[in-house]
Amino acid sequence: MKYKKCPRCELNYIKEDEELCASCKKETSLVSEEDAFLRSTKRSEIIKAGDNFPLSKNVMLINYLTGSNNEKWPKATYPLSNNYYMWIIALDGKERDGWKDVLLKDERIKQTYVGDRENLPSNFSLAFDRSYKAVFENNG
Predict the structure, then answer these.
(1) Which of 46, 66, 132, 137 is least buried, going by the fewest C-beta atoms within 10 A?
(2) Is the dihedral of CA 27, 32, 35, 38 positive or negative?
């Protein structure tokens, strides 16, 4: 069996009868899945608990749901409507920027500030004017 370089990345070698290397196949299928999701799903559809969004970056979800065009993910909360805001957190109990967030057995979220009490973050006493949080777990 002969081998050739992957025509997409030109780094990995593949069998002569293959089109792309495993890395490029994974990347192109992810892009295709993201494109299909963004083309076929309406932003106004109701989001339900347990919904998954096949987007490789949180900023893509933020832009999709808020109709914005951010290039990075600068904060954890974004307004979605007059009554809801989006809250993107990791629910694994690991400390991030002084905060630990955990999903409890009764599906409530426990958020604990474990950071430096002498230098509280600017969002420590932030009060939200929206009634409900739509929580998005950051799995990436």
Answers:
(1) 46
(2) negative
